[in-house]
């Protein structure tokens, strides 16, 4: 699984977060997407790689601007994952 973190400019409220989340869900097959206007960021969890250019286009179409994209491997941390 991959964690994609987007730095997004222009979000001001929870409705902005909803627009971003909905646009990402409609355009890509993702496990989870969570936007935060207070952090100016959106985090996406996906099993398939997402094309960065396509992702930028989807966000741009909502009226917001992606300033950076960061991808990294993601492992779910469960209750009993400590000590591994």
Molecular structure report:
The protein has a four-stranded antiparallel β-sheet with strand order 2-3-1-4, with helices on one face. The radius of gyration is 13 Å and the shape is globular. By secondary structure, it is an alpha+beta fold. It has helices spanning 14-27, 52-61; strands at 2-9, 32-36, 41-46, 65-73. The protein has a single domain, classed as Alpha-Beta Plaits (2-Layer Sandwich). Helices cover 29% and strands 33% of the residues.
Provide the fold topology:
Blueprint: E1 2-9, H1 14-27, E2 32-36, E3 41-46, H2 52-61, E4 65-73
Antiparallel strand pairs: 1-3, 1-4, 2-3
GO molecular function: metal ion binding
Pfam family, one: HMA
Organism: Intestinimonas butyriciproducens
Q: Give the DSSP E fraction (strand runs of 2 or more residues).
A: 25-35%
Describe the main β-sheet briefly. Answer: 4 strands, antiparallel
CATH architecture: 2-Layer Sandwich
Alpha-beta content class: alpha+beta
In total, how many domains does the architecture comprise? 1
SSE arrangement, N to C: EHEEHE
Gap from first CA to last CA: 18 Å
Major β-sheet strand ordering: 2-3-1-4
CATH class: Alpha Beta
Shape: globular
Number of helices: 2
| Average of pLDDT | 92
Residue windows where pLDDT falls under 50 for at least 5 positions: none
Rounded to the nearest angstrom, the radius of gyration is 13 Å
What is the total tally of β strands? 4
| Helix percentage | 25-40%
- What is the fold-level CATH name, i.e. the topology? Alpha-Beta Plaits
Pfam family, one: HMA
InterPro entries: HMA_dom (IPR006121), HMA_dom_sf (IPR036163)
Protein name: Copper chaperone CopZ
GO molecular function: metal ion binding
């Amino acid at each position: 699984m991959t964690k994609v973190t987007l730095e997004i400019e222009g979000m001001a409220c929870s409705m902005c977060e909803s627009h971003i989340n909905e646009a990402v869900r409609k355009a890509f097959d993702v496990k989870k997407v969570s936007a935060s206007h207070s952090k100016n960021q959106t985090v996406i969890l996906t099993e398939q790689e997402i094309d960065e250019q396509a992702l930028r286009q989807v966000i741009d179409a909502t009226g917001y601007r992606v300033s950076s994209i960061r991808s990294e491997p993601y492992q779910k941390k469960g209750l009993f994952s400590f000590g591994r």
